[in-house]
Each structure stands twice: as structure tokens, then as C-alpha cells.
Amino acid sequence: MDGFVECPGTVVVNAEGEEARLEGLFQLSASSFAGFAGVELATHTDVWLAHDLMGRPQPEIHAANAPRLSALLRELSEVLGSETDPDDPTCFARPTGTGAENFFDEDGRAADVWGSFEVPTRYDVFVHAPGFGRIGYRRTVRGEVRCVPVRDGRGGLLGHLWASDAEGAASFEPRDVGDDAVYRAGLVWLERLRAAHDRGLSPSAALAELAAWPDEDGAGRAGPSAEARTIPLAVLREQAKATQW
């Protein structure tokens, strides 16, 4: 048998010492099988590391938070009567008996694991439909698409909603999928497109309907039909990449 619990906590989040409560700071899990029992602690933030996941140094954040994680691991070890056994490295960091360490490139700089692993993983959902491409509209095409911009409440560009009747496809092209707000907004648009598909709407009909939706759930609002344009999807995606830098 096994089970887990999500644990909130307060950590220092910037060089000025500001603290914030994170709801999913840790996941504490336990399992038992064939006479063996184990407890595992996983964390969902990089505040324990000397460099963030993009490889940028964060000495003040590390100095404030790393001792807290070390103390927590020590207390768990004492309560359980067992030594801490670090798990295998993940894509993001290397667990240790007292916390976690960054990966470093050959030139000695902290690796940008966010750009190398998290961003491609996030982007994949916008270009590949679930169920091996059989659920909902297709999310990639070879030719042109009809698209409208999606902007947040301040007018900032979140991405583009696009559709192609010729290839039975529609998706959201995020401006910067590494940005949490953009990523969350994009997921909302994908859910809306999935619902439109399930109601039998063509991609262009779904685009027209969703372009009239108000700004809800922090997803922004699609531009009116007057702002729609036709463009090769490959070009739209290259333009989105260019705006990230």
C-alpha cells in the first residue's frame, strides 16, 4: 500500500528576504510492500539550490532556505530511525543527504535545466494532441492557419489561437511557454478547444466562437475577427520563439 500528502510551507523567495507560502512545497509519501516500508520527500521548488533552474545564482535565497531543508531531513531521519538515502538525480537537480545540488556544464557554469527540460516538456502539449493525436483537434499542420492574438487584461500578448479546417487542427501557440502565466492560459485555451471539438464544431467555427469569449480564468481574451490573419504555422511558431528573447 502507499499514500502521499501535499505539504505547504513558507520560504524566502527573493534577495530582499521576502517570504511566501507555497501550497505544494513538498510531497511526503509512504509505501509498504513485502515487509519493506519507505518514506520519500519530494520538493517542487528550486529555492534550496545555489542557482535557480535557469542557472542564475541566488546566494541569498539559498542561504535562507537550504538550512531549513537540511534540518527537515535530519528531523525526519531521527523520527524514522533511518538514514537519509538520496534518490537518483532528476532532470533538475541532484539530491543529497542534506538537500540538493545544481548540475553544472563543462565550463563550470550552472546548467539551464529549465530551458533544456521543462520548457520542451511544457511545449509538447501544444503541438501533440493526446491519445497519440486521436483525441480532439490535431495540434500541428504543414500549411497555413487562421489565427488571432490572445492578450491579457493589460494588453500583453499571451500567444495566438489558431485553426485549420483543411487539416482538422486547432491549438494555442504560446508566446513564452516558460512563463507560468502564459502556460496556464494556454492550457485553458486547449481545454476550450477540446470542448468545442467534442460538440462537433469545425476548427474555424471553434476559433470564431472562442474569439468572442470574455477574459476568464486568467486566460486572456482572443482578438476580434478583424484581427485574424492567415499565416504558415511554421512562421507563427518562429515568431513566437523570437519574442522570447
Brief sketch in words of this structure:
The chain contains five helices and ten strands. By secondary structure, the protein is of the alpha+beta class. The strands form three sheets. Strands 6, 7, 8, 9 and 10 form a five-stranded antiparallel beta sheet that branches.
Describe the protein in words.
This protein is α+β, with helices and mostly antiparallel strands. It folds into two domains: 2-111, no CATH class; 121-242, no CATH class. It has helices at 59-80, 113-127, 180-198, 203-210, 233-242, and strands at residues 2-12, 19-33, 36-43, 94-95, 100-101, 144-151, 157-164, 169-174, 221-222, 229-232. Strands 6, 7, 8, 9 and 10 form a five-stranded antiparallel β-sheet that branches. Strand 6 and strand 7 (157-164) form a beta hairpin. The longest helix is centred in the N-terminal third of the chain and has 22 residues, at 59-80. The radius of gyration is 22 Å and the shape is elongated.
